Amino acid sequence: MTAKINFIPIDYDYFDYEGKNYAKIIGRTDTGKRACVIDTTEAYFWAILKKNLNDKQIKKLQNRIEAINITNRVRTSKILRAEVHEKKFLGRDVKVLKIFVTNSKDMYDIAHEINFKEIEKKRELDINFITRYIIERKLNPLNWYEITGDILNNSTEFGGIDSSVDVDICINADKIILLNKDLKFKPKILAYDIETDEFEIGKGEILMISLYGENFKKVLTWKKSSKKDFVENYKSEEEIISKFCEYVRKYNPDILAGYFSDGFDLPYLRARAEKNRIKLNLGLDNSQPIFSKGNLRTGKIRGIVHIDLLRFIRNAYSQYLQSETLSLNEVSKELLEEEKLDFDFDPFNTEKKDIDWDKFYEYNLKDSELTYKLIEKIWIDIEEITKIIKEPLFKVSRSTMASNFEDYVIHNLEQFNEIAEKEPMPEDIARRRERKKYEGAFVLQPIPGLYENVGFFDFSSMYGSVIVSYNLSLSTCSKDEIKNSYVSYYQDKKIYFTKTPGFIPLLLGNIIELRRKAKEEYNQNQNNAILKARSNAFKLIINAAYGYQGFFGARYYCIEAASSAAYFARENIKKAIKSFEKDGFTLIYSDTDSIAVKLDNKSEEQALNTLKRINKNLPGIMELDLDGFFKRGIWVTKRTGEFGAKKKYALIDEKNKIRIRGFETVRRDWCVLTRNTQNKILEFILKEGNEKNALAYLKDIIKKVKKREIPLKELIIKTQLKKSLEEYKSEGPHVTIAKKMKEMGLPVKAGMLIEYYITESKDKKARVRDRALLPNEPGNYDIDYYLKNQILPAVENIFEVLNVNIEEIIDNKKQKSLGDY
DNA sequence: ATATACACGGATCCCCTATTTCC
DNA sequence: GGAAATAGGGGATCCGTGTA
Questions:
Q1: Which nucleotide is nearest to A720 (CA to C1')?
Q2: 8 Å CB contact between A303 and A253
Q3: Core-most of A119, A212, A385, A790, by most CB within 10 Å?
Q4: According to DSSP H, which parts of A117-156 are helical?
Q5: Is the Cβ atom of A458 within 7 Å of strand C at any atom?
Q6: For A74-115, where are the E strands, in sequence order?
């Protein structure tokens, strides 16, 4: 029976039938039904031919290749045909054979058999079937299509696939047409979270599982029974796992979301299901989650997109956040203004005595609720990035932005008739990783001082615009001289970039233009959240382009392009600085793409005129923007030496809005006391232009420190454990504390924030690490340490700008107070 | 394996020299 | 008096965390 449906693709999978690959795409219809679209495309790769082969030679080669077939344990794979094409590879014209094979999985094996001297390179073997399918059939994720085809209903086609997948409609696609109107789509999301009595995967038991969706709240437990309406009591761990699967099926979500669920919840569930000898059959085809190998485990559920929200936030979203950690609690606080519930479950309380289970259940549910609300909030961003990149949601939500950038390039090569470069081999990666660092950004050493009337300017998407303007990429780069080209240096050797536009600079130029348009449209219609998300998504991709070309894992790795981007950026910012100076502005500071000048007796208008002139002379699409005018700004000296410190300054604008960069205030490895004190002092000085109140405030803080009036929580120092304990060559205080925690039986893992405070010691020579205690260990905080190693270093340089010596103040007071004892 | 370089600053490490301790 | 242990200074290195 032929039918027509409106369809939005959400999850992509593929299967083999009679030795051939088929795509199986799960999505929704415009009536909210779950649909499965079966479709196919031919698998192929390219053989790039050596130059100067004549037609006869190529024909002969074609015949030899077409005769190849291989048989492995599973199936016989054949080469269907080999077509001659004119293509481009890295911008150069090449003659190629497009080699079609019966099964994508056997491409490497077949390519291995093709070892003829006429062939220079084989490419696109590493384009997976789903990516190939999306490119060929243009069925892009999260767009609406009209699909025409045969409905499969208890059909024997494809081995009866329609009855093995739990969907409302299964259709064998014949015609796919992109709809020109956007139908409404809101994914059905279910969030989940588990609580266990051991942290190690599968070691302990799952105490409870919470689920949260629209009008759907549940906590499944086999522990103490509860009368709470959302709690369901069962007899065993086995039962709650089964029930979990059942509820997921019943709720029928497009997305199952967790927080760190790739690394914890899903593998834990899988491990416990195995232990209980039951199936964790979450997939629409009743399959169990599939976990990828390797360091960063991912858990895939067939037909339902499993999203680990933490991964997306870490890779893409974190740059919009202020949070110091990406814990569910902190991110929720910032984005939702909601927090986790306060509940301290002690996993060492093996008897499980005195546990307030009702509170525990509420806590568990709240975690799912927060996860649900978070993904609802940032769905629009995930959606826009996915639509732009065109890879499946499952992948995009987990990829780093560099990898997303690469996927964007691959999905857009067709318009340049380009064949994709291959992924680097391990030996390429090893070589690339060994390379020396290249010179990076220009940072001007500031002269310390408190400045009035500061003009701040910055280049918009500087590295991106440099790559486009100077055509920097692998395919446009040459070590041999090119006449009339862009010339830079890499390791003292000249590098040339042709002016014939390369596909990466062209693509990047397009994205920058698309972003400009989206931003402009948004500015005219600030209620349109989609435009904002789109503009942000483009920005993220633009910013990844520079790092991508210098990233050892990139297909289009080009260290010369990366280093040249830094080179041309330096050239241009130095030129812009000269222009400001020529017009009589005193330079205060500059870092990479930003310039701060002193207006002195000049007007803002005069500064803007200089800006206009600079922009007239900038190459290509480069552009310097006004960031803002500030009524005051402070730059300080380094702790060692009397030079101005780079990457450390604070500004205040006319509306008393303060911007602090680099100071201890914004660093999480300083205690709250120090950070707050410095923040206050900067605020006083910036607002008032003198040190009077700042000094009074500081004196009061010092007094409080000496009287031990500072609460412990303000004295806690937090440092992240970046690697496992054994790897440390130098044992800092946080390492000592981490070792202690491990001895106590607490979980200690790389990535954890270690908390401690510093106490007094009779031994004058005791190291800081020997005086560090865990926050819950009683002790007297070391007044001297907090004054001299925390407060003093944070405020000394600020007061020095105003010629006040703080060391004396701290010392004098100390002598006085010693007399008090 | 999971973008780049530049930069700050605390704490430790490590070497050197001076001083103290011990026989 | 001389060898060994210890103290202390200072630069190098490690480490974590920022800016861009």
A1: C16
A2: no
A3: A385
A4: 129-137
A5: yes
A6: 76-89, 92-101
Torsion (CA) A756, A762, A767, A773 in degrees, nearest 10: -10
Please answer whether residues A27 and A5 qualify as being in contact, where contact means their C-beta atoms are separated by less than 8 angstroms: no
Of A621, A618, A615, give the one whose Cα is nearest residue A501.
Answer: A621
Q: Which amino acid type is present at position A231?
A: V
In chain A, residues 528 through 547 whose Cβ sits under 7 angstroms from any atom of nucleic acid strand C = none
- Strand nucleotide closest to residue A665 (CA to C1'): C18
Q: Whole-number Å distance, CA A592 to C1' B5?
A: 10
List bases, strand C, within 7 Å of protein CB.
Answer: 7-8, 13-20
Cβ pair A599, A454 in contact under 8 A: yes
Among A115, A99, A121, CA closest to A51: A121
Distance from CA(A559) to C1'(B4), angstroms, rounded: 10
Q: pLDDT for A291-320, tens place per residue?
A: 998 777 899 999 999 999 999 999 998 888
- A275: its two tokens: 């232990």
- Residue A564 (CA) to nucleotide C12 (C1'), in angstroms, measures 32
Detail the DSSP E strand segments found in A438-580: 449-459, 477-478, 486-490, 493-497
Q: Which of A317, A376, A13 is nearest to A186 (CA)?
A: A376
Q: In terms of DSSP bridges, do strands A493-497 and A477-478 run parallel, antiparallel, or are they unpaired?
A: antiparallel
Q: Which nucleotides of B are covered by protein (CB under 7 A)?
A: 1-13
- Using the CA of A771, which nucleotide's C1' is the nearest one? B11
Amino acid at A651: L
Spatial neighbors of A454 by CB under 8 A, at least 6 apart, are A588, A596, A597, A598, A599, A629, A630, A631, A632, A633, A651
| Nearest nucleotide relative to A594: CA against C1' | C20
Q: Phi and psi for A590 in degrees, rounded to 5?
A: -160, 135
How confident is the model over A658-713, as pLDDT tens digits?
A: 999 999 999 999 999 999 999 999 999 999 999 999 999 999 999 999 999 999 99
Contact, A647 CB vs strand C, < 7 Å? yes
d(CA A462, CA A440): 13
Q: How far, in Å, is the CA of A703 from the C1' of nucleotide B18?
A: 39
CB of A613 nearer than 7 A to strand C: no
Determine which helix (DSSP H) or strand (DSSP E) holds A706, and give its type and residue range: helix A692-706
pTM: 0.94
Angle at A455 between CA A453 and CA A456, to 5 degrees: 140
Residue type, A202: G
